[in-house]
Amino acid sequence: MAVIMRPYGPDSPDNARDQAFKSPSMVSTAPVLNAGEAPATKAMGDIPGRDACLPARSRLANKSLTAYGTSVPIGPEVMYWTKRDVTSLPGLRERARRSTPQRKCRRLALRRRRIIMKAAVIASFGEPSVLQVAEAPRPVPGPGQVLVRVHAAGVNPAEILARAGAFRLRAPAIIGFEFAGVVEAVGPGVDEGVVGDRVAGWPDSATQGSYAEYTVSSNFATIPDGVSFEEAAATVIGADNAARALGLMNLRPGETLVVTGASGALGSAAVQFARQRGVTVIGVAGTANADFVRSLGATPVAHGPGLVDRIRAAAPGGVDAALDTAGKGLLPALVDLLGGPDRIVTLADRDAAQHGVAFSAGGSENRDRGPVQEALNLIAAGAWTARIDRSFPLDEAADAHRLVATGHTHGKVILIP
């Protein structure tokens, strides 16, 4: 039978379909046919391989390919080059080889896999249920950035606030402020030798974060052998913030430091950094976490009424400084304990100024990969503990947020994209 011939050129429907995949907006939903079925077409019945070439996700019942908001006809008007039909036409053999339906469909499927990722997307801020897993455009690394395939993402109290709208981020947003993964591509100015490296760090954008299969970053540390992705993701924010706060106190070996929230991600990092520097540590935590705090090298003290007296009993030689990582109204007790606010720093209590205490806020302007690398190296050496409470698949990001919001976790909560 005769087949209508239409070349694959700038004005052809096939080229329009390819171009549709280059639009930056998000994939729209369209009904699909079952595997093995093909859209109704005219005069296509005897074209070899026509049915088999189209991916199931591209076989649309409405005879159009809907991609990134563009509907391109693939029905009666569209015919394809085939070897059988063009081998008699001079100069078109190679063009036909490149333009068979099978090759086109493979190219389209590969292109789609390269530009789409799965992510927990926030369309509007609010309760944990706003974290909805959907397909989103994969980010492209810019100058100085790397593209990272995320293997683990830490879940932090700051992300609970971001999801609820406290940071006034613009929707749609993908949050997640720390990651561990593998470098898959680099942007301009980055040595291609880092491709394949295992890294842990911070996403460069608050709305293109680590609750996704991919993120981009220019600030990261290398994960040593023997350190898991979960351990690395649990270390980034804690190590950075703890080291910065301890630096503000100018601690010296032999001094005594009180750390509140000593069993949490921030507190346990502070305890371990302080012990590495020869500082004696009193760790305030719940009684259920006393053994863990002791395992870090600190003396555990239970929080609650009578806290100041218990700390004084545990440190008869006196206390030189205090770091608050709990943010639970403990600053007045710490000021009483030290006799003033001069050597007290909080990472968690935004009412610090009312008590004359220094508040050290983390942000993109003061992130330091140095302490993160130090902590990761210590994990590899068996001299640091990254405590994991529970890991959730990305589809259960809302449940991960609900757990962190209780404030009763025993270690870091991790998402696995």
Number of helices: 14
Number of domains: 3
Mean pLDDT across all residues, rounded?
Answer: 81
Separation, N- and C-terminal Cα atoms: 50 Å
CATH topology of the largest domain: Quinone Oxidoreductase, Chain A, domain 1
Overall shape: it is elongated
* Known CATH architecture of the largest domain: Alpha-Beta Complex
Q: What does the largest sheet look like?
A: 7 strands, mixed
Low-confidence stretches: 1-93
Radius of gyration (CA) equals: 28 Å
Q: Name the helicity range.
A: 25-40%
The oligomeric state of the chains shown is: single chain
Strand content: 15-25%
CATH top level class name of the largest domain? Alpha Beta
Q: How does this structure look, described?
A:
The chain has 417 residues and is of the alpha/beta class. The chain has 3 domains: 13-99, no CATH class; 116-234 and 388-416, Medium-chain alcohol dehydrogenases, catalytic domain (Quinone Oxidoreductase, Chain A, domain 1, Alpha-Beta Complex); 238-359, Rossmann fold. It has 14 helices and 17 strands. The chain has helices at residues 13-20, 50-53, 83-86, 93-98, 101-115, 157-164, 229-233, 236-249, 265-276, 290-295, 307-314, 331-338, 369-380, 397-406; strands at 64-67, 70-73, 116-122, 131-137, 146-155, 179-186, 198-202, 214-217, 219-222, 256-260, 280-285, 299-302, 321-324, 344-346, 358-359, 388-393, 412-416. The strands form 4 sheets. Strands 5, 6, 7, 8, 9, 16 and 17 form a 7-stranded mixed β-sheet that branches. Strands 12-11-10-13-14-15 form a 6-stranded parallel β-sheet, with helices on both faces. Strands 1-2 form a two-stranded antiparallel sheet. Strand 13 (321-324), helix 12 (331-338) and strand 14 (344-346) form a beta-alpha-beta unit. Helix 8 (236-249) crosses helix 9, helix 8 crosses helix 13 (369-380) and helix 11 (307-314) packs across helix 12 (331-338). The relative contact order is 0.11.
